[in-house]
């Protein structure tokens, strides 16, 4: 039965990818309906927080575009990239990596993906390259962040914290390991696909008028408009920076007393409030045209991403949670028989759980029980970043929808998508580098 359910999930992703646009969400929801009403699986958790984060971020990014800020960023980037356009493929993932590292959440990537896509498209760089590795970078950085839930779980007294491992030990291994993995991944994606101007899907969209390639068609901003555009960029970047600070410094986050307990405001709520407020400030000070914002490419792509995530992510959560006991028991049996396969088990389990922290809490007790060295378990930590494997994770789906050129895509066989190569390269390299580092500790 479980394999029939998996077939439904893969078929929904396949058909949705072929339809494109909101098709992923529609057919994801159709697949969810079959799983729930046909196979009797209880509905999983709908990705409401993720959807609201994307709505907030897209509102801010669309307002930035309407204010001329996105065009301004593109022009600045073009000057930097004129000599070496491929630079965006290296700069974008590094920026995503450090933003995630300091904020402790990969959701911050949503604010960067539309900008990366637009800059790459206008610079005639195949957007698939920087977008795919940027998504992977935001995942890898979670296992190097001192404030992520995954690191906190790993450092808990029940796991490595009780074995004499400190936060410094984890960061000493994971920051260089994952960063090197991301850089090597960025090198690898440079060999993916044909140049943008030779890509058949891109050429089809240009021919059908879906993408404008004539830069002269863009509005020439007056000095006053340029001033407002620059101001909108400053406001937007300050908004993103404030999210990083809130994620990095717990003391900045509001604390409320609820039922006589002190509760710290969650980062998801902070991101939503800050980004929507950022949009409001841009409307006030940059005098952005709100009507233009909802008609822009960023807003349209973002709303498509929300619908796609609604169906696909909910379907995936329903399938994996409905069969969790099966996955746990089978993976435990394999690892018990072959302890050296623990890193692979972590990778596989993360595919099913869609959470590094949940994977750590689920499998690391088994790793300790098997007598695996705590340092080796640190080196294996990046292996929990396997949820790019099936293309239904929100940041993956968002990146696909933000790419107007169609180069970032789900392949004919579903699993041959844009994120496999950078994901595997970054993860494998990070683990290898991690093992090299612990050899000197």
TrEMBL record:
Q: What GO cellular component term, any one, is given?
A: plasma membrane
Transmembrane regions: 7-38, 50-74, 86-110, 170-196, 231-249, 269-286, 298-316, 336-354, 366-390, 421-440
What topology does it adopt in the membrane?
Answer: Multi-pass membrane protein
Say which domain of life the source belongs to.
Answer: Bacteria
Q: Where is the signal peptide?
A: none
State the UniProt keywords alphabetically.
Cell inner membrane, Cell membrane, Membrane, Transmembrane, Transmembrane helix, Transport
Q: Name one Pfam family in it.
A: DcuA_DcuB
According to UniProt, the name of this protein is C4-dicarboxylate ABC transporter
* Taxonomic path: Bacteria, Pseudomonadati, Bacteroidota, Flavobacteriia, Flavobacteriales
């Amino acid at each position: 039965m479980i394999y029939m359910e998996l077939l439904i999930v893969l078929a929904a992703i396949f058909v949705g990818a072929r339809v494109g646009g909101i098709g992923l969400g529609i057919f994801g929801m159709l697949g969810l309906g079959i799983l729930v009403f046909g196979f009797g699986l209880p509905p999983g958790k709908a990705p409401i927080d993720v959807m609201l984060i994307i709505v907030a971020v897209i509102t801010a990014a669309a307002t930035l575009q309407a204010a001329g800020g996105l065009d301004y960023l593109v022009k600045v980037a073009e000057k930097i990239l004129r000599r070496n356009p491929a630079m965006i493929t290296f700069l974008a993932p590094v920026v995503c990596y450090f933003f995630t590292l300091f904020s402790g959440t990969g959701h911050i990537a949503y604010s960067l993906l539309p900008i990366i896509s637009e800059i790459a498209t206008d610079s005639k760089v195949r957007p698939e390259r920087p977008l795919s590795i940027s998504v992977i970078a935001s995942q890898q950085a979670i296992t190097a962040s001192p404030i992520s839930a995954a690191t906190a779980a790993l450092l808990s007294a029940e796991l490595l914290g009780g074995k004499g491992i400190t936060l410094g030990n984890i960061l000493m291994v994971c920051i260089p390991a994952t960063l090197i993995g991301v850089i090597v991944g960025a090198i690898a994606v440079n060999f993916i696909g044909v140049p943008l101007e030779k890509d058949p899907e891109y050429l089809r969209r240009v021919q059908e008028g879906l993408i404008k390639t004539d830069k002269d068609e863009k509005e020439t901003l007056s000095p006053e408009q340029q001033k407002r555009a620059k101001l909108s960029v400053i406001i937007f970047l300050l908004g993103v920076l404030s999210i990083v600070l809130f994620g990095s410094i717990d003391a900045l986050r509001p604390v409320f007393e609820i039922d006589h307990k002190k509760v710290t405001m969650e980062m998801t709520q902070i991101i939503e409030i800050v980004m929507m407020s950022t949009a409001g400030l841009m409307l006030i000070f940059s005098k952005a045209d709100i009507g233009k914002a909802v008609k822009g490419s960023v807003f349209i792509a973002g709303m498509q991403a929300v619908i796609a995530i609604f169906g696909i992510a909910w379907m995936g959560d329903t399938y994996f949670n409905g069969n969790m006991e099966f996955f746990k028991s089978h993976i435990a049996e394999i690892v018990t028989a072959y302890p050296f396969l623990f890193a692979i088990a972590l990778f596989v389990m993360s595919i099913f759980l869609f959470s590094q922290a949940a994977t750590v809490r689920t499998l690391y007790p088994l790793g300790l029980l098997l007598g695996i060295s705590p340092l080796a378990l640190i080196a294996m930590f990046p292996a929990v970043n396997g949820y790019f494997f099936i293309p239904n994770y929100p940041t993956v789906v968002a990146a696909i929808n933000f790419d107007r050129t169609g180069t970032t895509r789900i392949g004919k066989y579903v699993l041959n998508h844009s994120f496999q190569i950078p994901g595997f390269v970054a993860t494998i390299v990070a683990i290898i580098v991690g093992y090299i580092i612990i050899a000197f500790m």
